[in-house]
Every structure is written in C-alpha cells, then in structure tokens.
Design brief:
alpha/beta; seven-stranded parallel sheet; 13 helices; about 35% helix
C-alpha cells in the first residue's frame, strides 16, 4: 500500500478520499509543523507528500523520502519553500493550489487596509483599557479610504481582486506589473506606473507579489522613504518582501502612518517583537486564505492531484 505523508491535518473530508482509494494516509498530529528531524524520518518511503509553507522541501528531504516519491502537493499557491529544480531532476511532480484563494486573500488585504487606516485595533485596545471617557473631535483620526489613491504592487489574480474592492470605495488604482494588463486597466480604470512613481503617489500600498530573488526586501529603507507622508502599507504576499527593520524605522520616523501585515519576517513574530507593540500596526497570523470554503477547496485540490499522479494521470494544478 502506497503511503501519503501530510505535514498537518486538513479541514473537511478530503483526506478520506485518499484512504477510500486504498492509500495509507499518515498525518502529522500536532498543530505545529514537524521539526526537521521528525520530518526527515516520517517522509521515508512515502509515495506522496502534502506540504505547507513552513516545510522546507529540499533535496535532502526528497532523498530521505526515497526513490518512490512521486508527487509533492503544496497546500498553498506559493512555492518558495520547495526546491523545484531538485524535484524536476528526480522526476517528482510538484503541484499547488492557484486561483482558489484569490478572493479570500483580497478580502483580508482590504480588511487590513481599512483596519490600519481607521485605527480599528488601536481603538479596540483604547476601549478595553478603559480610556474611552468621551467623544472628541480629534480622537483616533486616520486617513479616509473613499477617493484615495491605492498602489497595487503585483497585478495578478489577487492584486486585481484587491483593486476591485478598492474601486468599490471610489479609489484611484495604480499598479506595477512586469506585463501591462489592458483588460484590467479597462475594467478598473487602473494606471500602470513604475514602482517609484506608485510609491510617491499612493495613499495606500498593497503588496501582492511572489517572493523571488528580485522581490526579496523589495520594500527596503530607500523605497519606504519614497512613500507619501501618512501612507499605509499592507502586505499579504510574503514577509520577506519587506525589510522589517526598515519598516519599523519608517513607522517611527515617517513617512508611514500605519501598516497591516498578514505575513512577517520573521514568521511567526515573537510575542515581544516591536512591531506588535506599535499602536498603528495590525498583524494577523498568515490567514489570508482562511475562508472556510477556500480552505476546504484547497484540501480537495491537493488530494485530487495526489490521486491523479499516483494513478499515473496528469495533475490539474502543476507548479509553473
């Protein structure tokens, strides 16, 4: 019986489809990711792996699994934790879950934008602390969304979905992308500009780019300094797209007013990290795709591709 190792339990009943198809399903039982030593031990002899973003899937892990490993199915869109070249050289198919989490992630990105700008978390803490004594014209003022300019860095599926939400607030949309997006420009009234111009003009900047060598610390001290005074930065892409030390400096000394972060560097953030004590920073624990229906569909996608490959069929969602 071929074995499938899953590095965390999945929501719903998708794993039952593998069991019903006659495969042994071995699930790491803890909430936290398996430690490296345990991961190397548990993958031995597996025909398929279902992995998460926190798992480092490199040549060492593939070799530990052995020559019977046929497929690695990633429960995420991003693949920066997987050595794709090592997989190709070993004839291992890699799949992921594109498209399905577009709207859930765009929803959260816009929620972070609104929460950071309008100081929602800061206001909640203010009330909890018993400081709410009266209404005052200058209490917790923040930038308004309606009619503002938003810059979208990376204009793929999620970036465009985020822009649609911004248009619902009559926001002007600027975007950067390696390729022009004429259809999206026509639909959204979006304007393609260079990154420097976007940072100078946008009241809000939302990051939707994959992590690559080119985007590592894309938002460094120099670029953060280019942003408008009082701007808000949102990151639901990858933590390392932003230089954390530079972000703190930009929040303390300007020009940034606030930040909304679903991803961080390091991730997870230690409880005593200065970002968490900053009053105008909203941090969520990488829950961009955490809509219930989205996560169930992701489970169906990874198990479906494992079944396809083990049955010597083409996967539906191969890595690019």
């Amino acid at each position: 019986m071929e074995r499938v190792f899953v590095t965390r339990n999945l929501p719903g009943n998708a794993l039952d489809t593998l069991r019903e198809a006659g495969y042994e399903v071995d699930v790491w039982p803890d909430f936290l990711a398996p430690p490296r030593k345990a991961l190397l031990e548990r993958v031995r002899g597996a025909a398929a792996l279902i992995t998460m973003l926190e798992d480092r899937v490199d040549a060492e892990l593939m070799d530990a699994a052995g020559p019977g490993l046929k497929v690695i199915s990633q429960y995420a869109v991003g693949l920066d934790n997987i050595d794709l070249e090592a997989a190709r050289s070993r004839g291992i198919v890699v799949t992921h879950t594109p498209g399905v989490l577009t709207n859930a992630t765009a929803d959260l990105a816009f929620a972070l934008l609104a929460a950071a700008a309008r100081r929602v978390v800061e206001g909640h803490r203010y009330v909890q602390a018993g400081e709410w004594k009266t209404w005052h014209p200058e209490l917790l003022l923040g930038p308004e969304l309606h009619g503002a300019t938003v810059g979208v860095v990376g204009f793929g599926r999620i970036g465009q979905a985020f822009a649609r939400r911004a248009r619902g607030f009559d926001m002007k949309v600027l975007y950067t992308s390696r390729q022009p997006r004429p259809d999206a420009e026509a639909e959204l009234g979006a304007e393609r500009v260079e990154l420097g111009e976007l940072l100078e003009r946008a009241d809000f900047v939302s990051l939707h780019t994959p992590l690559t060598p080119e985007t590592l610390h894309l938002m460094n001290a120099e670029r953060l300094a280019q942003m408008k005074e009082g701007a808000v930065l949102v990151n639901t892409a990858r933590g390392k797209v932003v230089d954390t030390a530079a972000l703190l400096e930009a929040l303390e000394r300007g020009p940034l007013f606030a930040a909304g972060l679903d991803v961080t560097d390091p991730e997870p953030l230690p409880a005593d990290h200065p970002l968490l004590s900053h009053p105008r920073v909203v941090v969520t624990p990488h829950i961009g795709s955490a809509g219930r229906a989205t996560r169930l569909r992701m489970a169906e996608m990874v198990t479906g591709d494992v079944l396809a490959v083990l049955r010597r069929q083409e996967p539906h969602f191969p890595a690019p």
